[in-house]
């Protein structure tokens, strides 16, 4: 899958599940629950034990696109793509990682928080901009940024939930990444049915035109 194809699919799906936990087993169970709830695009942060194994396992599933999160080094990028990652996410803008994604043939989504960082990431070749952390202005802030920079494809991954996702999409967000608002304390509690239910609610809400 080319970076452009991934971006298109992400724009259609509109939502992704992003997981960070300290247990490989819990990560597999929690993400499986998110998939049962209808998620198709998922991200395992590389801080999870066995993250590369999880990427390999889930990328082999039919109809699932898997990304690696918290990619800070070129070697991590290489290992993630080798395992099956279709996109690479970072918490910051790092031109070396963006260039590595391009060389490896996958999409890059660096973390950005200001218009300058977003434009810098775009100029470096990133197809998407992760908005992290959430700005104080929320969706209104994003709308203001996209006024002069409408070509940016921005994906908020903090401060977005099932109740406000339509506001983010109306403001111009390309898609949304769900972390605590999807998984939360239920990962440690092993409450997989609650995660599945929230995933279903998010997917259904995202499918509703804004």
Question: What would the keywords be for this entry?
Answer:
single chain; 210 residues; alpha/beta; globular
Strands of the largest sheet, in order across it? 5-4-3-2-1-9
Q: Quote the average pLDDT.
A: 97
| Amino- and carboxy-terminal Cα gap | 28 Å
SSE succession:
HEHEHEHEHEEHEHEHEHH
Q: Please work out how many helical segments DSSP would assign.
A: 10
Using the CA coordinates, give the radius of gyration.
16 Å
Topology:
Layout: H1 3-13, E1 15-19, H2 24-36, E2 41-45, H3 51-59, E3 65-69, H4 74-83, E4 87-89, H5 95-104, E5 107-109, E6 111-112, H6 115-124, E7 129-131, H7 138-146, E8 154-156, H8 165-171, E9 176-178, H9 186-189, H10 192-206
Parallel strand pairs: 1-2, 1-9, 2-3, 3-4, 4-5, 6-7, 7-8
């Amino acid at each position: 899958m080319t970076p452009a194809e991934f971006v298109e699919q992400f724009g259609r799906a509109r939502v992704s599940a992003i997981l960070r936990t300290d247990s490989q087993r819990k990560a597999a169970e929690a993400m499986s629950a998110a998939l049962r709830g209808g998620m198709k695009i998922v991200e395992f942060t590389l801080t999870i034990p066995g993250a590369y194994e999880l990427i390999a396992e889930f990328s082999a599933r039919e109809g699932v696109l898997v990304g690696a999160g918290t990619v800070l080094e070129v070697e991590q990028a290489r290992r993630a793509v080798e395992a099956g990652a279709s996109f690479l996410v970072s918490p910051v803008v790092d031109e070396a990682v963006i260039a590595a994604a391009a060389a490896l043939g996958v999409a890059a989504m660096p973390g950005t928080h200001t218009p300058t960082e977003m434009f810098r990431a775009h100029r470096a070749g990133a197809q998407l901009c992760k908005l992290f952390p959430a700005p104080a202005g929320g969706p209104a802030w994003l709308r203001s940024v996209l006024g002069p920079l409408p070509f940016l494809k921005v994906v908020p991954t903090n401060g977005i939930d099932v109740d406000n996702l339509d506001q983010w999409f109306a403001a111009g967000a390309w898609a949304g990444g769900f972390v605590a608002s999807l998984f939360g304390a239920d990962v440690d509690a092993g409450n997989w049915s609650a995660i599945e239910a929230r995933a279903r609610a998010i997917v259904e809400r995202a499918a509703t035109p804004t």
